[in-house]
Amino acid sequence: MGLSTHVLDTAHGCPAAGMRVTLQRLDGERAITLKTLELNADGRAEGGLLDAASMVAGRYRLVFEVAAYFRSRGVALPEPPFLDVVPLEFGIADPAAHYHVPLLASPWSYSTYRGS
Questions:
Q1: Which of 47, 57, 66, 103 has its CA 20 to 30 A from that of 40?
Q2: Looking at residue 29, what DSSP letter applies?
Q3: CA triplet 111, 8, 34: central angle to 5 degrees?
Q4: The listed CATH number (2.60.40.180, 2.60.120.280, 2.40.50.140, 3.30.70.120) that belongs to domain 2-112
Q5: Which of 64, 61, 106 is nearest to 82 (CA)?
């Protein structure tokens, strides 16, 4: 079923189109980058992040480039920004299941949950 994400820009009330996201698999202290992409017009990773055949049980990290996204939208941020990149670490216990990791973000806050 795979791994997917969806980012909503809560400051503007829209999908975070164009936000850069990096997916990493964590191997002890080492982070292995699997994919870096820009979210589509709906704030989603086109085609998902990992397909079911590529998923293995383990620890993963999604890194969302929040400050760069808001700057690209014309938001004046302090230097350094309050939120620059948002790393979300999560576990995949059942590679046959679907894992959806949404992010709701503004320049000042974020929240996440395991979606469906």
A1: 57
A2: T
A3: 80
A4: 2.60.40.180
A5: 106
Q: Give per-residue pLDDT as tens, 63-115.
A: 999 999 999 999 999 999 999 999 999 999 999 999 999 999 999 999 999 99
Environment class of 5 (CB within 10 Å of its CB; exposed 0-12, middle 13-18, buried 19+): buried
Local structure of 72: helix, strand or coil = helix
Smallest CA-to-CA distance from 60 within 96, 19, 88 is with 88
Cα(42)–Cα(63) distance, rounded to whole angstroms?
18
Using DSSP's 3-state secondary structure scheme, residue 44 falls into strand
In the chain, where the domains are located: 2-112
Mapping DSSP to helix (H, G, I), strand (E, B) and coil, where does residue 11 land?
coil
List the structure tokens of 78. 């302090």
